[in-house]
Amino acid sequence: xxxxxxxxxxxxxxxxxxxxxxxxxxxxxxQARDIHYGAVSDARLGQCDTAEWQGKQADARxxxxxxxxxxxDPAIRAEAMWALGDLKSANDLFKQAAAAxxxxxxxxxxxxxxxxxxxxxxxxxxxxxxxxxxxxDDAYAAVGTAEVLAGRFESKAAxxxxxxxxNDKAPVGARIKALLxxxxxxxxxxxxxxxxxxxxQADALAMPAKLPQLExxxxxxxxxxxxxxxxxxxxxxxxxxxxxxGGVHATPAYxxxxxxxxxxAIDLYEKAVAVQPDxxxxxxxxxxxxxxxxxxxxxxxxxxxxxxxxxxxxxxxxTLRLLDSFSNFDLKLFPEPVTPAAxxxxxxxxPEIMMRLHKKESAVLERYVRKLAMQGIDTFAKRYNFKLEExxxxxxxxxxxxxxxxxxxxxxxxxxxATFGYLLAMDSPSSRAVNEFHWGSTLWHEMAHVFTLSxxxxxxxxxxxxxxxVFEEWRTGPIKGILIPGYVFEAFxxxxxxxxxxxxxxxxxxxxxxQVMVSYMQAGLVCEFIDREFGFDKLSLMxxxxxxxxxxxxxxxxxxxxxxxxxxxxxxxFVNAQFGSVxxxxxxxxxxxxxxxxxxxxxxxxxxxxxxKRAIAIMPQDVEAGSPYVLLARVYVEAKQRDQALxxxxxxxxxxxxxxxxxxxxxxxxYAVQRRDDAVAVMQSIxxxxxxxxxxxxxxxxxxxxxxxxxxxxxxxxVALALNAPDKAGTHYRLxxxxxxxxxxxxxRKHLIAALEVAPGYRPAQKMxxxxxxxx
Amino acid sequence: MVAAPSLERSVKSRALILLVPLxxxxxxxxxxxYAVVVEGLxxxxxxxxxxxxxxxxxxxxxxxxxxxxxVRAFVGQEATRDAVQAHLRSLAxxxxxxxxxxxxxxxxxxxxxxxxxxxxxxxxxxxxxxRRLLDALPTENQLLVSTGSAxxxxxxxxxxxxxxxxxxxxxxxxxxxxxxxxxxxxxLKEPTADTDKSGSINAQEAFDFASRRVEDFFKRDTRIASxxxxxEGARAARFTVAQLASSTPVRVSASPERQKLGEERDAIxxxxxxLRLRKDQTAEAAYLADxxxxxxxxxxxxxxxEALDGAAEPPAGAASGGGNGx
Lengths: 776, 326
Known about the structure:
Chain A is mainly alpha-helical. Chain A contains 39 helices and five strands. Helix content of chain A is 66%, strand content 3%.
């Protein structure tokens, strides 16, 4: 594993090729070549392909070798090489073919497909573009382009397919491929009926053309499973046609995976690699999903096998590299499992949570993660009347890209956290700038997912799971109150809210840059609306309906007694009633913030105060970065109006503001005016944003000691020590003080000795040690 | 000859015992402190205000220590190159060998690749000016703190074993306005900066506190650090720069019994230091047991000393290293 440890995270291999000079790395083992549906028209090769697609692998290999010997055409020889697993030679031959046939779009389209097999989608895209420049009607190249776009979840993919599907003059094979891709996209969007229709169309074309039905069968199996069937006849149908066709399991597994139904996905991927051991992509997915199920050892076995077969899949390399780094993490269990004494009737106590935290920060984060996670388990179990059946695995990554690899196998993921069932992974607070995110809220959000996923056996749609998580952040999370960014309101104002039964698409295939966030907020508001208009129990009822297998339209109808259209109309009225003044005042709000900032820069306190107050009046929930509350408080401080500054910051905090500097100023002021309990509450809330400031923990510990809360103080001093606070003697002394208050003199003594080891002349510590050593 | 290495170890160990108290001891309490605090041009109102505030804090901290000597601040239009040079030249005539001189340059600096310049009204004070002025002082107990941009370039000009040199930047190429000065000034009033719990802040403690604050600032905002504070010279831990307000000055009893107790305390301190140096070679339980015994002896000695000192006349402003709470 040394090689992988030394390798950087891979995104794409060999970026930026120019057609004709493309480079391709050697892949030593066999890699399944695609079913090309007539994109290659060579009679001898066609015979080999037929044998291959029927699972007659030995015959097929013999056949491909004979083609290699007999065919003078480098494009055909490239196909044979590819089928035999020598991708480097295949690449060289395609290069020759492209040079020999400079006007051939098809050669470039096939070459592009080879690049997809080697995980070089960007390069494949460039070749497809070149092919389409040569022949804009090359339907195979157009479908290939759509395939790459679909892999990136880009909505443009579907647009490219319609003209091919409806074009009777297009090659039948290309039309079948387009129909398959369209049905694939329909299944991704839960449009089962549409998928069925498309698959029927594909079947009607494939049968008379005598083209393989394997992939149609695979999608039909996926469709059956999506409709709740446990078994699908199409599996046997496909395996009869080709007993080694792993895709019939791997394709439905993918649809389970994107619905976060990991365990069903794992079962199917296991079947896929059982019938086709060299289906490396399926093995990578199997390993990745086992990891999401915290089956680390087994996951590694599959990933290592995949690495041997296909060493250049960046997801495999990245994930194995991440697994290597697990030795840098502590695994903390809570409660610690207790093994009963031999002969005892007591059962083994299991932990409720398992925290995988980086060694460099586990001593700091553990207690806060534990506290919040346990609080979440308690809160959600009561609210949703569901008891978790397994420990929750919680992973925090100090490097965002490690989190991204953990989640998607690749860096560059724009998320803060992800939940896969009983396992959640997220950015550690150290992975981002201090006030960039409220990690406590993220953990709370993910904990809510654990419940919605588990309670529905992972059948909850993405939008509803996100909606409940956002709603719970607002209602029960560490920072309560509805927090919606200004640009989301702008999107609402522009009519960009989606119909409730289409809301999932806003997450899966966003059509504009901020649509995912807009969809999060809309989903949260939908849950808020259900709670207020229909009652909280209806949210639980919706989960029950999803568990039964109902889709959103049916769940809305059966749980709420309204049609989705009526629901949408009422929801719109609700949003207008709640936020009408915000929506109407967006321009004023922006202008007021601008005026306030400019006035502050000019020390024009009066104008700044008036404008900031105006901005707050329009959008009281504006507490994110650049909040007018913080600006107003700053102006009040400059204008020596300390009471107003305090009141403003307190309002900001209560509405969910979490800028650590602003909150620290609030805590200091509260302490100064003798509101020590409030000061402590504010300081404790900072821990869920910025937990790595040793001064903050030391001061909070001091305040807690003053308030007679030595156990809490002990926690804070311990964290200060774990953060390597430079005042070691002082920190140990304070720990000793806390232990004295807790009547634990032996622990106090240990810390006094530690304090005096650093500073032997430290009089308060000396006095306390003498005191402890005197006989009573 | 198996005995030789062990003999060698023994000799080294003894040398350490003798050396350690010497290294840890502050510079003689009777040594006068001459502090020179120079406020540079701010350029912008916010910097001018910050520099002025820092000068005031440093001035007050120095005054709390100045038993004899003088604290002189140059601010505003009075802070000229000529005035500062004249003052340092005059100090060269009055400062004695055991006295201490601390020079604080609070403001922006610049470096043109050859010469450091501290920005003042009129001609700037240069690194070469400072070298000449400091080299002319009869004492080697010198501290120079330069809190501004490009100040790291001074190290090339002023670095000297006996001279403590603290700069806000690593070199002359770090040219952005710095935040080190504010954190250094804050350290002079901050009990948690007093890591040895002596009741006072020495130059090393002030530097450690401020440089950590600077590092934390850039880390917190995941910015690329534009300044890397630097310290040179072996005596930083011996150069006291502030007496903490929370420590209570006491009159030291002059009785023979007090003197004996003082010697006893120093001896225990030496044994503690020796034990700490052997920590890695000692079993943990034995180490902790020995340490606790010595710490209790030391605490008992301190208690007796405190009783004697407490019985002496009320303090008249002199300060000793009394402890302070956190």
